[in-house]
Amino acid sequence: MGAAPREKGMDGCIFCKMVEGEIPATKVYEDKAVLAFLDIGPISDGHTLVIPKQHCATVHECDPQVLAETSARLGRIAEAVVAATDADGYNVLSNNGAAAGQVVAHLHFHIIPRKMGDRVFTQWPSYKYKKGQMEDIAVRIRSHLK
Ligand code: 5GP
Ligand code: ZN
Question: How far is the CA of 17 from the centre of ligand 1 (A)?
Fold first, then answer.
């Protein structure tokens, strides 16, 4: 499956409007497939968003080639963000769907520079599976991947 030619952005999508130059963005990187710009509401200095220029809403709805091209840029952009902000590490995350906190329905990867002990994310609510539950869930997921 090849990437469909990108013509005009998705109506009403603010990130497509940035790609088209219709609304401003503080760009840090751009090529034919990808745009990276500073998040207007950062959770740390240098918080960057990396988007495919071709509109898709989520990881699973994205053309695999577009997803591959976007993902392939993450390392280089993250390295630059870390170097520029003197960060000790970074999170790469993508919210997919409103339940996961996605507000802008154009696929994007957050690159969030981190300092040791910064307490940016104070919660990681992990827990233990009940007996047998882990295998049950894995069986269900595998059945959808057949
Ligand atoms: P989400 O919650 O969808 O994963 O993240 C959307 C991100 O887009 C938020 O972090 C928000 O601050 C950022 N954002 C929303 N509108 C704009 C905008 O107009 N310009 C920029 N640079 N970032 C935006
Ligand atoms: Zn869009």
Answer: 13
